[in-house]
């Protein structure tokens, strides 16, 4: 890989870098230093056209490959990603500003997705249908063709793996549109995959803005499915564009996860997890737990410990490997600061944080607001920053009602030693993903996605394969 500080990144189509035909050039800024770290030759509608055409060409050959052979190639891709962990992590850290050890974990997640789905290529089967003795009925589970993937900036590599690997494993070819802020690692991942043996065109990447490349991909007639990960308003627009072409759409949208702590929970474990749930990746996590619901009997002790520990969280540039990095951009920094300022007016000063450190970069201190009514804006909106709200409850019923009082339904967590209570909560809470006694407990094997405004469909696990395949029913008359 060439020097990440100067690399020009552009579309990667047909197994090689190509010049963008009609997009806009954009400077990439390391949000921890505000230094320009590279340039992206962003593509537009013409580049998306070219990428879709090439993926369609590649899809036929890829689909026809014997499933174990597809699996072996994806295993090689996973191994190649692991071999290039250091350089990929460095690039990710420079673009997203995240601590280098977090970027390394992300590369491992990317490899893990390819490894997991490598093992599934020869297990995607149909079923026999009980159509009676006069017929033989069966289903075939077939790939869709070409799938489009529009990705956000918060976990560029992990989400590339989660979205693209199952589609490719199912026999589709893909066109990927990474976020404008963090396009370089998607291009690198595609290049590594091709070098490891993936046929050119099975993963094409078109960097560019949402309005140029993103909307062109969402509404493209040459694709057969759109997988979108990002905010609710953009997801709705992408969904509309997809349905115009009668295409299925997966929407992985925002969240506002309730984290419920009962008095019988392991105290230290619950504190560790409450902090990790909201301050990991500076709170820029769809599956975060920014709404802490704590039982009134343990509230004071819990809040004291949280505030002490939050004040100790170190901030800094990626290569110092601090506890927490900056927000992704000046825009996001402005949005989060506005939410904090508005919350000060509405619910009072935070018990910790709320200020910006005196340093370059888009840093915001870990911030905790106590005694927040659940209908306060700060508790209802997805802040997507290092901001925790704390609300008390008196009993299980109240905890559940507060947990469900949100437009989102992505993740929820509970900390208790009473497993009956934990599983009652898991049954009744309105969320696609539930964590018991460990926030972020689930891995690549576990289906991920939301209810309510958090989305449509599931990624990860075997469930994702259903979203990237279609069922054909075949019925033959036996006695004719
Ligand atoms: P965003 O919606 O602004 O952008 C996401 C992607 O869509 C980017 O690639 C962007 O360029 C593209 N885009 C923008 N406008 C478009 C348009 N009109 N047509 C097509 N594409 C367009 O989201 P973001 O700010 O990058 O990401 C943050 C949001 O993503 C948060 O709400 C977060 O919760 C959500 N998210 C959800 C998940 C999940 O799995 N549910 C995971 C990560 C992030």
Write up what this structure looks like.
A hairpin with a 6-residue loop joins β4 and β5. It is globular and about 75 Å long. The protein has two domains: 266 residues, 3-Layer(aba) Sandwich (Aldehyde Dehydrogenase, Chain A, domain 1); 186 residues, Aldehyde Dehydrogenase, Chain A, domain 2 (3-Layer(aba) Sandwich). The strands form six sheets. It has a six-stranded mixed β-sheet, with helices on both faces. It contains 15 helices and 22 strands. The N terminus is likely disordered. It has 480 residues and is an alpha/beta fold. Bound molecules: nicotinamide-adenine-dinucleotide. The site of nicotinamide-adenine-dinucleotide has 30 residues, from α7 and α8.
Topology:
Elements: E1 8-9, E2 12-13, E3 16-17, E4 25-29, E5 36-41, H1 45-64, H2 67-83, H3 85-96, H4 100-118, E6 128-129, E7 135-143, E8 146-150, H5 156-169, E9 173-177, H6 184-195, E10 203-205, H7 210-218, E11 225-229, H8 232-244, E12 249-252, E13 258-261, H9 267-279, E14 291-295, H10 299-311, H11 330-347, E15 367-369, H12 377-380, E16 387-393, H13 396-404, E17 408-409, E18 411-415, H14 419-428, E19 433-436, E20 451-452, E21 455-456, H15 463-467, E22 469-477
Parallel strand pairs: 1-5, 8-9, 8-11, 9-10, 11-12, 13-14, 13-18, 14-16, 15-16, 18-19
Antiparallel strand pairs: 2-3, 4-5, 6-7, 7-22, 12-21, 17-20
Bound molecules: nicotinamide-adenine-dinucleotide (NAD).
